[in-house]
Write a structure and sequence with these properties.
By secondary structure, the chain is mostly helical. The protein has 10 helices and no strands. Helix 1 packs across helix 5 and helix 5 crosses helix 7.
């Protein structure tokens, strides 16, 4: 494992690129897989279905991987700037490749304007993750940040169910929305707020603390706004339809 890690650390850009290409190949493969009829009738829905399908694979992979890394080496949570394992480093490399691929997919699909919030999020994540990959600092922080992917499994599933026009009162949608809220609070808000607290508490001893703290605060604002939208849509909706398909990308 150490030999493998040394090779990755010697050529991080190459391995990030390989991971990005791998996710792109997965995206291409999904184009050959049949999708629901409600999706195939609209170009935007077709693209969104495949984009979310790749995102779901990434979330299932990296969410479990991130939790496993911390369970196997819990000291990472307390020594975020300097401590990491070979598995943790490779996780950040793989996830960096995904976010680069997904950002490119959004831009080149022609839906960047409608998905500007996702692009902003991806830019901040890519910058932070690549910093960790190339400097070997804050790798543990990136791993903790990837705890949010546990929640993303249910977020992406929710949007896929909406695309497939599954009834909001159906059993599968109800179970998913409950798990979505629970994991949003525990894994997404919990991970983000812990990292924010860590940066504030250790501010004077951390390199580039201002940049990372600013990034975290921006992300905190974004996830709180999205949480409000999520609660409003799934639990306090008055039943009024959205005025456009692209509004769906937000709610």
């Amino acid at each position: 494992m150490d030999t493998w890690l040394n090779e990755v650390q010697k050529h991080p850009a190459l391995f990030v690129l390989c991971c990005s290409v791998t996710f792109r190949i997965l995206h291409r493969f999904l184009q050959t897989v049949p999708s629901p009829g409600t999706v195939e009738t609209d170009p935007w829905r077709t693209w969104k279905w495949r984009n979310l399908s790749v995102s779901l694979v990434h979330s299932m992979l990296t969410g479990i991987w991130a939790v496993a890394c911390v369970v196997q080496h819990p000291v990472m949570v307390h020594e975020i700037p300097t401590t990491f394992t070979p598995s943790a480093y490779m996780l950040v490399v793989v996830s960096s490749g995904y976010f680069i691929q997904d950002a490119g997919d959004i831009i080149f699909s022609g839906y960047a304007k409608a998905s500007w919030e996702f692009l902003l999020h991806h830019v901040m994540v890519i910058w932070c993750f690549l910093y960790a990959v190339f400097t070997h600092q804050y790798v543990a922080g990136a791993v903790v940040a990837l705890f949010v992917e546990v929640n993303s499994v249910f977020l992406h599933t929710r949007l896929l169910l909406k695309l497939a026009k599954v009834a909001p009162n159906s059993h599968i949608y109800t179970v998913n929305k409950l798990l979505n809220v629970v994991t949003y609070v525990t894994f997404r808000l919990g991970a983000q707020f812990y990292l924010t607290w860590y940066l504030i508490h250790h501010y004077s001893s951390l390199d580039h603390a201002l940049y990372f703290l600013t990034t975290m605060m921006l992300m905190n604002i974004m996830i709180l706004i999205y949480f409000y939208r999520l609660l409003r849509s799934d639990f306090f909706s008055k039943g009024h339809p959205h005025s456009s398909e692209h509004k769906f990308a937000q709610d």
